[in-house]
Amino acid sequence: MPLQNINFHTRKWVRPEDLNANGTLFGGSLLRWIDEEATVYAILQMGNGRVVTKFMSEINFVSSAVQGDLIEMGLTATKFGRTSLTMQAEVRNMITRDSILTIDKIVFVNLDEHGKPAPHGYTTISYDRDRLPTHHFPPIPFTA
Ligand SMILES: CC(C)(COP(=O)(O)OP(=O)(O)OC[C@H]1O[C@@H](n2cnc3c(N)ncnc32)[C@H](O)[C@@H]1OP(=O)(O)O)[C@@H](O)C(=O)NCCC(=O)NCCS
Fold it and tell me: Which residues does the UniProt record annotate as the domain HotDog ACOT-type (predicted)?
């Protein structure tokens, strides 16, 4: 059953390097794409360039895609927490609209300059670009 109220943004064209041994779309490629898509969504909703994936619920690979298919990815926020944002995701075939993957719950956490969870201060979805981060925290240096 397709998820409700999802806006589909990014499109992908399934290429030979995205295939598994069965000749269909490799789940790892799909997860990398959806995690990146969710990162962009989380940045735009929480207004901060430093956000990380905290949790992903069951991932349902509903149907497959093959080389040359056009697919599109959609996300919607389902819960604004204090420091977190929970989203739902769906990937579907652009032409047939058949669902390829659904994820009920993806949680991102908003971090401060020290890499600690920080309140983002938002409670509703923005459909504009009014929360674009105006600066980037430098990466935290690795210490052994
Ligand atoms: C993100 C991280 C800083 C959070 O640390 P933490 O000690 O769990 O922080 P907190 O307990 O304060 O939780 C932060 C938020 O995450 C939520 N959260 C924590 N664990 C969760 C879980 N298993 N499922 C859903 N939400 C969770 C909390 O509810 C809280 O949200 P809220 O403030 O909106 O209520 C830490 O877990 C981390 O660095 N994880 C690795 C992240 C990463 O590298 N991701 C890349 C993928 S490899």
Answer: 4-114
